[in-house]
Fold this sequence. Notes:
The protein is globular. The chain is built from 9 helices and 20 strands. Helix 5 runs antiparallel to helix 9. The chain is an alpha+beta fold. It has a 4-stranded antiparallel beta sheet. Strands 3-5-8-4 form a 4-stranded mixed beta sheet, with no helix packed on it. It has a 4-stranded antiparallel beta sheet with strand order 12-19-16-17. Helices cover 30% and strands 21% of the residues. About 2% of the residues have low confidence.
Amino acid sequence: MGTFKFSEIAFNSTEKKKPVDEDKYTYLGLEHLDSDSIYVTRYGADVAPKGDKLIMKKGDVLFGKRRAYQKKVAIAPFDGIFSAHGMVLRPKEDVIDKDFFPMFIKSDYFLDAAIKISVGSLSPTINWRDLKELKFELPSLEEQRKLAEVLWAIYDMNDKYKKLILATDELVKSQFIEMFGKGFETIKLCDLATFRRGSFPQPYGKPEWYDGEGAMPFVQVADVGENMRLVEDTKQKISVLAQPKSIYVSTGSVVVTLQGSIGRVAITQYDCYMDRTLAVFESFKTEVNKLCFAYQLKQKFAKEAEVARGVTIKTITKEEFSNFEIAKVPIALQNRFAEFIQQSDKSKFYG
Length: 351
């Protein structure tokens, strides 16, 4: 085990070029990097990018230094050019194993430390002059090699699982379009159900509002997952004193985010309270399968986001949400679709 400055661990390649037309085929921008994967699946541009770009070589580790909180790290899949809002990193192999290096850069240990030195408010960016001075502890090269073998095996297994999940999501989406795509009347949410937004006592920072005996999970936007479930353990729990001032949500309720990362939908798998960035459906005026309804809502938000492409939507008012329209589907068909979801992906059961 040893402690090293980052400049002793990695080279920061700053070689650049002004793109020509043929470079558009091997261009990688930050938009091509996914926060949850180290592999690149999208690349290229319609026209040659403007401005100087970094030269990358196959196997380089690409790191998004702009808005680093997005945690974008990838391995260059070929020789080409990379966004100047990133860094092209290469390992110093006398200190760090070349197979361990990508796992180290992708780790929360490195990324959390790097994010802390970001500067700027609108688009916080990491400067090399600050990053190179950060110190990290590393195991011996022999231990790194052993760790790399294990970490890559785990990572690749998880990556295959994610791809399976994506394929399943596409299958469910395709079935949804086939069953509900046309031929049905629509109904406004206000005519279908009643809902209310969450709340929290003010001021937020009072210590007596949090934790203690009898504290309950407090759901916020970040606690609503992409798989239509809540996270297993919320970041905050609110005290017995705060609970009467918030909104109680029972297990099996449909909740949706209306502010920040809007349009996340979940069926709660535990009792909780929630803040005002979310709404909970309290009752339905007609027979509804909650799993089918939650999926309809999710697809409705996805469609709205597609229509509003290029526009940053930070919030939806209660009135706007009330006027959302979804297909008015017979309960028998709702049940059939819900059963299809459950059978399609038992490993990611939604509710």
